[in-house]
Amino acid sequence: MSRSPRVLPSVLVLSALSVTMHSAPSAHAQDADQLWADFAHYVRIASPELAAEAADGLAAVSPGELLDAVEASDYDDSARLFQRAAGMESISEAATQVQAKIQIARLERSREPERIAADIDTLSKGQRAYENATQRLKAAGQFAAPQMLAALIDRDRASEHPVIMRSMTDIGRPLVAPLSIALPKLAPVAQGQLAEVLGSIGYPQAMPALKQVIENPETDPTARQAAQDALAAIAANSRVTQGASAADLYLALGEGSYRTATANPAELDSYDPDTGTGVVWNYDSKLTVTGGPGLVPVIVPGEIVGDVVAMQAAETALTLNPDLDPALSLFVTANLRRENRLPEGEADRSYSSDRQEPSFYAMVAGPQRLHDVLATALDDQDADLALDAIAALSATASLDALQPLVRGLGYPDRRVRFRSAEALAYAMPKESFTNDFRVVPVLGDAVRQGDSRIALVVGESQDDRNEMISAIAALGFQTIDGESVRAATGLVAVTPGVDMILVQGESSEIERALADSQGNYKLASTPIVALAGPEEQARLSGDFENEGRISVILEGADTLTAAVEQLAASYSGSSLTPEESKEFALSALSLLREIAVSETAYNVNDALPALIEAVQDLRPEVAIAAGDTLSRIDDPSAQAAIGADAISRSGDVQIALLIDLAESANAHGNLISAQMSDDVLALVKSAEDPALAVAAAQAHGALALPTRNAVDLILGR
């Protein structure tokens, strides 16, 4: 962003004139050459005010004109100039803007087709000309590939081919990706020449294309030999085996691109750091801008280029070996992530209009490939990708194919946990399977999404626990506590859910807390904060560095606050909107209702505490759905929870809960206390709203309360 020109006060200008022979420049009166000369001069003599004035003038100059001025200037060390300007506070920002403008111009100019063509023509005009031209072509990087390849294909320029090949080799790695795309599609002579170039560069990214040429039975023998020599040279230098098939090498190339895009996208060869975009290459056998067959760059958003390259490599691998299942998994995985990472409002020009949506290919690929997608998502902690895999599995898979979703029940992001539980619950298995007991508690967590948070506090002494309880309560947590996780099992069982485990002790005690929590279906994915003294903290952190749900912190309120909030966030994912929270709760309640009335391996009682809490929910739809679900459960606490809120609530919720109370009594008998029975009768007598009166009467009758109550009402007593 350039600064707007500003005018110095006349007093300042006159003052400047009194001490220097150089007059302050004007953007309207001075050309770019003079403005640049003035800027450089004032920076060198440490006159920031006048340098700033010159910089303001340069703001009105086009990037190309500015670069012309810089290149024509006698002052050839602009890097040192800008380094000096950066040390002058009043001018550093303006100098940075001028420098950025020059860099933009250099980038644009280096990639101009006319300049690239001129530099290629210059390569054969002597050593000095070759070095200068190659240096400029290096600045163009991969964007020099189309025209350099076109020159190499051109038989009329055969005399120039050796020097062009030499320059390609000197430019090196930036050319490997585009040249590798072109290699399998070239005529024999050019194919052999390009194989030689790629072998000289020595970068392993060329190995799949070289092996593809070697494996093709139609390859010219001379070109095949050149490709074999190049492959052997690269394999020897990079310690990569050359025995793998081309399909396997393309798969490895795609997987490498996917992994790099996961860990450090800026390291991708296809990423252009100067523009923040990505470059993907195609070889077009039809007419291109070079006047014949050639390379075509496709510019894509930088956020997705690693996935696009992975898809491209996977697709080539499948072309060579349609039975290569890992390549299909990679294509589906990268395609789903590409869609997730595509910035809103931007287009992916590499994705042709005749392709289907990524979810289409995910479902067509089938459950086994989706298992691979889900495993990658969970390993990478990519919640969006995991949700995509779960959605596709839910739509296409049988129960047996759904069981890998059990791993999703312990995933940090709550959306993934909830969707995994929903998919497994929807299948309603009649036979037990490994870890099936974890499904219903996760549905219970989905029901109880609200402001309340509960922590389990573990410590050997009550004094230690009380201190931790005080600290965690200050963060808004309700607490239960015990000497160990196992000792608190009874309390955990009747608690709607546990959001955090707070433990204090030696390494063995923390290990025991971890093991005990893993064996408890309500605690298996609960994050753990372990408190330690200064001497123990570093050692314990090392002991548990591979346990993502454990954070070892120094004792103290400040560190506890930070650790709890950070760990809670990482084990919840981004916050749910109220609409999302309600949608998850209602979906879970619907599934829990079906579990309650079905013959299934799941036990709805595992969510009973959460359901009892949910019937008190201030969201009417959630409270009503919770009451409906509780009415299907043959348990005194379930009926009592319905009754308590049927008496205390009002409006539509109260009416619905009274009807639920009646249905519970019809199905399971009267399980409520005498006092609650009296409260129901009092409601029958006092109800003024006709609908409320009818609902209360229905509950009274279903509970089989004494008939004299009805007689009294009839007689008006």
UniProtKB/TrEMBL annotation:
<dbReference type="InterPro" id="IPR011989">
    <property type="entry name" value="ARM-like"/>
</dbReference>
<feature type="signal peptide">
    <location>
        <begin position="1"/>
        <end position="29"/>
    </location>
</feature>
<keyword id="KW-0732">Signal</keyword>
<dbReference type="InterPro" id="IPR016024">
    <property type="entry name" value="ARM-type_fold"/>
</dbReference>
<protein>
    <submittedName>
        <fullName>HEAT repeat protein</fullName>
    </submittedName>
</protein>
